[in-house]
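FW: tagging you since you asked about this chain on Friday. Here's the raw sequence from the shared folder, copied in full. Didn't touch anything.
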Amino acid sequence: MIFCGKERCIPIITDGFTYIAVLVFFSSLFVMMEKSKEWAILRIMPAVVLIYVVSMVFCTLGAWDMAATKPIYRELSPVLTHGMIFTMLLRCDVRKIFRIGPRMLLAFFSASVTIMAGIVVAFLLLKDQLGSSAWMALGALSGSWIGGYDNIAEIQATLNIPEIDMSGAFIVDSINYTIWVLSLLWLITFAPRFNRWNKADTTKLDAVSQDLQEDDAKRQEKSSFPHIFLILGTAFLVTAIAANIGPLLYIVFPFFTKSIWTILFIALFGIIAAFSPLGRISGSSEVANVMLYSLIALIASRTSLLQFGDAPLWVLAGFIILGTHLFLMLLIARIFKLDMFTLCISSMANIGGAASAPIVASIYSGPLVPIGIVMAIIGHIIATPLGIWLAGFLKMLL
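HL: got it, structure written out here
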């Protein structure tokens, strides 16, 4: 129950553990409902989408204190992201993944270019309403929507953008990003129908996915408690080590951010571990999925639909960017006969980065998660220079 007075609603959850417990409980409940196949809503809205929607609704209703629960969110979110990436990579033979290469790269860079095109369109339509510093804020936003939060911070520092001028961009990076993740999680469930309509050639993608699934089937048939416990413990240990190694690598090699070095370390360790005895035991899928669904609930739990009213013109700009991006990507898909998975993972690797790309990839096919990770890393690398260039270009359009 939420107690409401004349001025505001008082959230019932003010401690971090209860906040996490509620999110994990409802996530597990929806997964069980989906497995039972008796709930009509789950035929239209998969569990992963329902988890996302319900978490947002809880946040909108003020079910938890955002300030009080922020510390545990900031602590747990990277742990789950990095642990999920590691455990998902245990199931993958990257030598087979790279056979898909060229079409994925085409789609990824197409997504980057169309996002930038969307930002230009939004700026031209709304530059008089968004303020005189919009060119800087939108340039910084492109850093986040091609790479990640580290990139938007780097561009903000490089262009010396005051914090007050970034508020609109941060709202777009929160509310529009969340709606886009939700949309892609839903759209990817229509992949077979879209691929037939678009006459997309999925032969190579299906072959690689089938090979990886067969490799997965060769593992021990039944997960056991010792195996799951070992994988969970290893994932947490690798995550802890990476959290300390990443900043050290950044000091020695500052051409990547701390976040990129951390993810690169985890990805490399996961790829190597996939060829070790650890990669041949069962249980990694179960551990990864628990982290995946918990992470989905966490991400959605920080977005209140009330944010739409905080900066409506900036939210509108965000939808113009995404609408332009979607239209152009569908046009490119039609020309090159790209499939839905390729479109969704390319878009999410740009807009969502390393935290969200594996989520979308895993909904389609768990063994294809490394594609999302590799794309996200590329995005981290190119986003800062592209964002700075785009800001300069927008300034020329004033």
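FW: Residues 94-217+224-282+307-396 form one domain.
HL: agreed, and The two ends are 50 Å apart (CA to CA).
FW: great, closing this out.
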